Amino acid sequence: MIDSFIIPELGSMAYDNADVSVLLSEGAHNVYAIVDPDDEIIEIDESNNQAMNSIGVYNQQDLAVYDWAIFVSNTEPVDGDTITIGASVFNIRENIAVNVRLRFYDGNPDSGGVQIGPDQVIDTILPGEFKTVFYDWHLWYIGGRYHYIHAVVDPDSEIVEIDESNNRASRRIKIIGLPDLTGKPERIWTGTLWNPEIPEDGDTTDVYAFVFNIGSWPIKNQDYADKRVDLYLYHNHPDSGGVLIAEKHNYLPYAGDSAYFFGSWNTSGCAGENKFYLIIDPDDSLGELKEDNNIIFTYLPVDSAPMPDLCIRPDSIEFIPEVPIVGDTVSIIAHIFNLQNRQAEDVVVRFFDEEPETGNLITEDTITVIPGLGSVTLIAQYPTLGKAGFHNIYILIDPEDSIPEKNEENNFAFCELNIRSPLYMSPKNLVADTINRDEVRITWQPPDSETIGYRLYRNGVLLNYPRNFAPQGTARASCSAPNYPPERAIDSDNYSYWLSDYDPQSPLWWSDSFSQVIPIHCITIYWYRVPHYFEVQAWKNGGWQTVDAESLTSGYHIITIHRFPDLIYTDRIRINMPDVSGYYCLGIYECYIYHFNLITDTTFVDTFLGRYNADCPP
């Protein structure tokens, strides 16, 4: 029985209606209506008290979602936030909907959209009603752009509906991006930018570190990255006495991009594994998605030094007295260094007056032991009787190459010794006149003896001593590799160098220019790699003129010396390499440009030391 009703009174020849609501299952149904089922009323005809009608019930359903019925708790959240999203599902037909599945997507599911969270299942939606589903969505590394949230009801078509076109809806939100800077242990290394290398104990090497922005801001070609970030690289942790190797205050890399920086590290005594720390934004001045990935560490190996490296430099040669007079005995003091952490034994050292191939041997000495990373000082006595003038004193280590070394190219150096003539060659009637606050004119008369020139001192400083003027110039080159600019060849550091581009174009050149014309008597080039042919050129008469050229076997760490007995007067020097085809790269450690400024007349104007600001005359 579906239901029963009592009609209180029914008049003669009248009728009344009885309505009932019933929920029928899918299929065919015979619905009976029976009046006076218990024969309580006496009638003249009982056969017409019952009627039947057949009803077919079909499961016609239609579920719908709408754009306006998608809910978002924050329409402009920040990457890293958790927001609540929701969608209302409507049952717009007459049948009950059960086990209705709803799925959220970030982006159109037909175009690679990513599902947000698990499927949401609604147990029952009555006809003509709706139910709303919510989900807490954690935003993670997806900021910096607009996103479309798609809600899809019955995504797998489990429910037969009369209209499937209204099962999807979407809404746009903007997720604000944040940066996230971090590093990678494998992207911290020693060597060069292009070629990681394991150094040996005692080497000086560069240490590189890369920083990556794995976050969602700034977006290239969209956002203006005006923020800077502090980057630091330490050998061992700074809280435990670590040594700062490099630091950089870099513009923030774009999302998905990286930046690198590097510093120099001397590995003396560091054989084995060495712990390095990359520390990003230590003051947390930059808001990031994650702050726990700003310290990256790795272990970098240093090999034990297999061989010593004996070295002498021009600045490690001294003379006592510094400017002797003919007849004095000069003490030549040589400081011999071992740049590797491996001792050297029975080291022969020879002292020469002028180049070893043509000069005179002054003395020879043998050092029993030079400890690793240590040094030994030798003193040689040099009598100067009859030797007035300029002398290049050469010191040669291990002249027979009997000691295997890591570097055989730094075993000699020379320094100029000026031996003064006797006092009877001094000038006569020496007078100093103040011209103005910038200049002093000194005049004298030559002595009766034969004198070709003089050197001038002021307050114990030799004014016209041969000096290297290269660092006072401006270095340029036809091309340079990144981080190896031309000025590194005039920075007075024999361990830094200018390097050309890889596979350079011909002609390749490096130059040094000055603000005024200077006289040049010698140019010394310490090559990183020398070509088979090059030209030394001076700017004269409006063009480059070759003043010396050299052909030799191409190689590394070669020193070439170019002397000019007739002084060259110019304001520009160029090293020209007309044909560099087939070379991977070429470069110069240091270029030295010397001039004597020897006084050969009776007037010398002191102008190149700068203004003298005392109240009294200079």
From TrEMBL:
<dbReference type="Pfam" id="PF07705">
    <property type="entry name" value="CARDB"/>
</dbReference>
<protein>
    <recommendedName>
        <fullName>CARDB domain-containing protein</fullName>
    </recommendedName>
</protein>
<feature type="domain" description="CARDB">
    <location>
        <begin position="62"/>
        <end position="170"/>
    </location>
</feature>
<feature type="domain" description="F5/8 type C">
    <location>
        <begin position="477"/>
        <end position="583"/>
    </location>
</feature>
<dbReference type="InterPro" id="IPR013783">
    <property type="entry name" value="Ig-like_fold"/>
</dbReference>
<dbReference type="InterPro" id="IPR008979">
    <property type="entry name" value="Galactose-bd-like_sf"/>
</dbReference>
<dbReference type="InterPro" id="IPR011635">
    <property type="entry name" value="CARDB"/>
</dbReference>
<feature type="domain" description="CARDB">
    <location>
        <begin position="308"/>
        <end position="411"/>
    </location>
</feature>
<dbReference type="InterPro" id="IPR000421">
    <property type="entry name" value="FA58C"/>
</dbReference>
<dbReference type="Pfam" id="PF00754">
    <property type="entry name" value="F5_F8_type_C"/>
</dbReference>
